């Protein structure tokens, strides 16, 4: 089964759309075919575009970002091979909503690093927080691909 990943945060307008864009970009650079999407555990921003600061930071690094916010669905647990949470609160919410017939690996995205780390929500801060999230997503993308696909 080809690798397919759903990156999840709370509202799906900051961390997870950055993560989606970065993971897709890093995989493409490494010549890895992968399906990537993102979603939120809440319904706060359904249909909205990513936060302007998320778009700005991705453009700064020539990473394409285009997404309409959506909420995690029951079907996601069957259609994705991996569902990766931005932080522990979202991981707990995913485990609470995970159906019995789930086939997805559900983990904290930061758990692929030697020193696991959550992705802090940059929403209430400035552009620097978004750049930190972007750089963290680059590290997490490589760590995830190294473990799941293998090192080149």
From TrEMBL:
Signal peptide start and end residues: none
Domain Phosphotyrosine protein phosphatase I: 3-147
Keyword Hydrolase found: yes
Active site: 9, 15, 121
Keyword presence, Hydrolase: yes
Compartments where located: Cytoplasm
SUPFAM superfamilies the record matches: Phosphotyrosine protein phosphatases I
A GO cellular component annotation in the UniProt record: cytoplasm
Reaction catalysis annotation: O-phospho-L-tyrosyl-[protein] + H2O = L-tyrosyl-[protein] + phosphate
Keywords (A to Z) from UniProt: Cytoplasm, Hydrolase, Protein phosphatase
Family the entry assigns: Belongs to the low molecular weight phosphotyrosine protein phosphatase family.
Protein name (database record): Low molecular weight phosphotyrosine protein phosphatase
């Amino acid at each position: 089964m080809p690798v397919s990943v759903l990156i999840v945060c709370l509202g799906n307008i900051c961390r997870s759309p950055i993560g989606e864009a970065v993971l897709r970009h890093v995989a493409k650079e490494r010549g890895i075919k992968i399906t990537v999407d993102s979603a939120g555990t809440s319904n706060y921003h359904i249909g909205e575009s990513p936060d302007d600061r998320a778009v700005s930071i991705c453009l700064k690094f020539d990473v394409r970002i285009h997404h309409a916010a959506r909420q995690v669905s029951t079907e996601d647990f069957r259609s994705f091979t991996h569902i990766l949470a931005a932080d522990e609160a979202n991981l707990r919410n995913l485990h609470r909503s995970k159906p019995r017939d789930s086939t997805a690996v559900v983990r904290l995205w930061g758990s692929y690093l030697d020193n696991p780390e959550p992705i802090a929500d940059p929403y209430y801060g400035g552009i620097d927080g978004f750049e930190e999230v972007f750089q963290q997503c680059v590290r997490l993308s490589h760590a995830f691909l190294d473990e799941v696909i293998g090192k080149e």
